Amino acid sequence: MYQPPAFREDRLDVMHGLMRAHPLAMLVTAGEGGLMANLIPFLIDPAGSEKGLLRAHLARANEQLTALRAGAEAMVLFQGPNAYVTPNWYATKAETHKVVPTWNYATVHAWGTPRILESTDWLRQQVGELTDASEKSQARAWSVDDAPEPFLAGQMKGIVGLEIPIARIEGKWKVSQNRPAADREGVIDGLRQSDHPMAELVAERYKPASD
């Protein structure tokens, strides 16, 4: 992806953190049928390979399986918070008016060769781990074990597992790093007025001058 140095993010733990916080990612493949893309929730296992291992499952009827089974490189796009930035938040607007709107965002792109898994035990574990990770914010968490076993067995027949050892990974945090300090403070204040999560991402990358 296009990565100006100011926006580049190379820290593996930071990129993995975004992937955990925003697990629904775009799985992109290129096969005989051309480019295909599907939104799939992924889990990231930091210890699964040098750069991490992605795990997921998808419907057995999903046509993208043809490309995945062929073993060609797949791309997975994780999208974090994003926000429109109005020039009205910039202090320099009042000084020069030489400002334009932009968009702030954080994203991680990962590439790797997919592996298809059909073991019932693997699928049961993956579905359970994904459910537990997704339900942890609920006051009364639902568990896979809450469903009748015969029903679960039938559901497992309709899905296949997917693992993608990450061979290459890139992160981009475009959060106003290229703006003067006063403009960045204005962006933080503007976003905080609407309780937008992007405000904290901008604040994390902003280090005001010490007194």
Automatic annotation (TrEMBL):
<dbReference type="InterPro" id="IPR012349">
    <property type="entry name" value="Split_barrel_FMN-bd"/>
</dbReference>
<dbReference type="Pfam" id="PF04299">
    <property type="entry name" value="FMN_bind_2"/>
</dbReference>
<dbReference type="InterPro" id="IPR007396">
    <property type="entry name" value="TR_PAI2-type"/>
</dbReference>
<protein>
    <submittedName>
        <fullName>FMN-binding negative transcriptional regulator</fullName>
    </submittedName>
</protein>
